[in-house]
């Protein structure tokens, strides 16, 4: 019988004549790493440089990895191909990665991961609900990170806060407002811009005719905000 339209051809399938015409050598796909300490380099290399076919064959292996091992793949620099391969299935690993944001005070890769999570959450309510789990970790980075780390945290919280009203309120209730106001006054130029974006988002609410939260800004912070609006990040 002929395979159904769109079905994947399996090496060794029988043709109409009965005997296999060829049996190509199987494509080598790294086995899913196991154990508490795993080497994810083979999978990372495959995600970066593998063909579409080998990536498709690796999909099940990557899906069956422990979430902590999937996070190791993200930390190894394979964020983009990992998300492209798993789609919304990457949500849990992204949330865990972001929840640990304060473990790296420079916040390396944090805003990129947050943007990826935001994109997934915007089209999947399940991922949007899971995203609530990383807010506290991002606020911790906002409080304790380096200047670059605070900038990354602010950018991440801004991305998540514009996804939906529940995430916006979660950002406010997690205590992000005071350090965000402080960042507006003493952060890097980019950090100030990110902080202004977060505060603007938190103060707006499309559902009601009043601000979502009460954001108190000092005169000095307000002047910084006016400068940002009129002059951009050149402060």
Could you please describe the fold and organization of this structure?
With 235 residues, the protein is mostly helical. Mean pLDDT is 81; it is low at 1-29 and 208-212. The chain has 13 helices and no strands. It is elongated and about 55 Å long. It has helices at residues 41-49, 52-63, 67-75, 79-86, 91-99, 110-121, 125-130, 135-144, 147-161, 165-173, 177-186, 189-203, 219-231. The N and C termini lie far apart (71 Å). The chain is 58% helix and 0% strand.
What can be said about this structure in brief?
The protein contains 13 helices and no strands.
Low-confidence stretches: 1-29, 208-212
Counting helices, strands and paired strands, the structural category is mainly alpha
> What is the CA–CA distance across the termini?
71 Å
Shape: elongated
| Helix content percent band | 55-70%
Supply Rg: 23 Å
Counted by DSSP, the helix tally is 13
Query: What string, H for helix and E for strand, traces the elements in order?
Result: HHHHHHHHHHHHH
């Amino acid at each position: 019988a002929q395979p159904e339209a769109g079905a994947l051809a399996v090496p060794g399938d029988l043709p109409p004549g009965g005997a296999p015409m060829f049996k190509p050598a199987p494509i080598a796909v790294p086995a899913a790493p196991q154990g508490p300490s795993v080497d994810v380099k083979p999978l990372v290399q495959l995600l970066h440089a593998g063909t579409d076919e080998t990536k498709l064959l690796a999909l099940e292996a990557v899906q069956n990895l422990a979430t902590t091992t999937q996070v190791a793949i993200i930390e190894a620099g394979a964020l983009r191909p990992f998300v492209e391969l798993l789609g919304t299935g990457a949500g849990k690993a992204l949330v865990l990665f972001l929840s640990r944001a304060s473990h790296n005070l420079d916040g390396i890769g944090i805003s990129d991961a947050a943007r990826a999570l935001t994109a997934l959450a915007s089209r999947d309510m399940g991922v949007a609900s899971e995203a609530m789990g990383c807010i506290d970790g991002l606020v911790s980075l906002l409080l304790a990170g380096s200047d670059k780390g605070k900038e990354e945290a602010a950018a991440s919280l801004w991305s998540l806060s514009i996804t939906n009203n529940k995430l916006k309120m979660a950002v406010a209730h997690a205590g992000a407002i005071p350090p965000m106001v402080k960042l507006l006054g003493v952060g890097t130029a980019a950090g100030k811009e990110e902080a202004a974006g977060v505060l603007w988002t938190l103060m707006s609410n499309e559902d009601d005719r009043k601000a979502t939260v009460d954001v108190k800004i000092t005169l000095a912070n307000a002047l910084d905000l006016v400068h940002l609006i009129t002059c951009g990040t050149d402060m």
